[in-house]
Design a protein that fits this description.
Distance between the termini: 72 Å
Number of domains: 2
Structural class: mainly alpha
Order of helices and strands: HHHHHHHH
Number of strands: 0
Number of helices: 8
Length: 157
């Protein structure tokens, strides 16, 4: 009986391995795209009382897409969708801190225009968390990406 149990367990493990390898092959051949979320006003109305949940689901979809990008994928392919999704999730739930860190990590390095868009997203975070110093540091870092450090030096962030 113990030998039968061992063979059964070994068969399940092998079947799982074969299915995993098959899924990996299929995933490598697909071209993933980041989908735009609905406009902010429509998304707010559609989410109703579940704004927090909707923002978190959108964050998960976006982060899984970024995590699965193939190397050397042009950022122009997903720049607008990434900006839109980060803007929508921070508007729906401004107290959700993770999108601000995600925004700092991925959006500003794409282009100076993306850095400017990241600034508006980070300003939402600074409004939600006025005493959070990392968000203010991120905002200063965006100015370096936009090459506007000299014009903004006298301005208090």
């Amino acid at each position: 009986m113990k030998i039968l149990h061992t063979f059964f367990l070994t068969g399940i493990i092998l079947l799982y391995g074969l299915l995993f390898v098959d899924q990996e092959k299929k995933a490598q051949s697909r071209d993933f795209t980041l989908e735009f979320s609905l406009p902010v006003t429509f998304q707010t109305i559609a989410a109703g009382y579940a704004k927090q949940l909707d923002a978190e689901i959108l964050f998960i979809r976006t982060s899984v897409f970024i995590g699965g990008l193939k190397p050397k994928t042009p950022a122009a392919n997903y720049q607008e969708a990434l900006n839109n999704n980060l803007h929508v999730m921070t508007f729906l739930y401004p107290q959700f801190i993770d999108p601000y860190f995600f925004c700092e990590a991925f959006l500003p390095s794409i282009s100076p225009d993306s850095a400017a868009q990241a600034n508006s997203i980070l300003e939402t975070g600074i409004t939600a968390y006025p005493s959070d110093l990392p968000l203010r540091f991120f905002l200063w870092d965006q100015l370096l990406f936009m090459d506007e450090r000299t014009t903004q030096r006298g301005k208090s962030l």
